[in-house]
Each structure stands twice: as structure tokens, then as C-alpha cells.
Write the C-alpha cells for this entry.
Amino acid sequence: DKDAHLRSGFSKQVTPAEYEASVGDNTITDILADYKIAPGNVFFLPAGRVHSIGAGSFIAEIQQTSNITYRIYDFNRRDANGNTRELHTELAKGAIDYTVLPDYRTHYEPAQDTRVELVSCPYFTTSLYDLTRPETLDLASLDSFVVAICIEGRGTLTDDSGAAVPVHQGETVLIPASARSLAFTPDGGMKILTSWIG
């Protein structure tokens, strides 16, 4: 939506005690960096970075497997019985990265018909393909499955066995690690996010 926004990281330096106090007096959102977002924006959120996805946002979230999520604030929302959800304020205090950055967005140069790497970290690599013509991804040296998310348009994904899967915006395809290649064939144009381990 036109007013969609996302909060990522702190907008100023705070101590753990100040963070805890801001949760207690409902001012935590005032000390977070707040970004108006638009299609194509990318944010990399390493472990420990406080973030909040605002209303009107439609996102593709790529994350490493984790059994821990700390909810530090819930905007005082209540369920049908009037109860608030459990918060993990104290646990999160020691896990939060309090480093302040000048900009928490991930900047990249868009390009058509080629791979544009968005994020590469020890846990996953995510790239964007904005395609107007067929493109083949060589997976022979990759020791991972590939997740392909169609974020715009439509087309076909074909692996080296010849198995073809039609995709359109909003659909996700899991390519097994045994695949040696993956061909993207856009139907008039298509944007694909790919992600793999490592």
C-alpha cells in the first residue's frame, strides 16, 4: 500500500535499560528506524536486529531455520478474551544488537536478464532475476536445494530432468538439491527470487 512501512534497527543509540524502559512506556517504536517501503526494497535482518513489518506490506521473507523468536512489543493488541500475547522483553535484552547504522536498507543495482545478488551470508544467498528472455541457472556446483519465488509476472521453470512447472506471481517452487540446472522461461516478463543455503 502507499503508506506501507517497515522498521529496522535503532534510530539512535540506546542502552539495554533504555530499550526495556521504552517497551514499558510504549515508546519502543519511537526509537526504531522507520522506512516507507516500495516494491523492490530489500532489508537484510541479521539475528538480533529489532524489526517490525507495518500494515499494508507484502513481503517475501527469507530466513535461516531458527527455533527462537523474541516478541518484544505487540502494540498492546488483545485477543477475543482481552488477553495480550506473551512478550520476551527480558530475554531479548541480551540478544538484541544495539549497533546503530546510518541506513538499514540493502542497496542494489537492478538489471534485466542477469542474476543480481541481493544478500549473501553464511546461512543463505538470495538473488533476483528480472527476466524478459530465457535464462538458465547452473546448479552443478551447488550443494543445496533452491527456493524459487515468482514475485512478478509468469513463466515456466524447468530442471535438467525436463520437468516443467508453470509459475505466476505469488507462487513458490522448491527445487531439490539433486537438480543440476534450472531454466527460467518468462511469459512476457517475470521476476524470480532464488534462495539457497550458503
Summary: The helical segments are 16-24, 89-95.
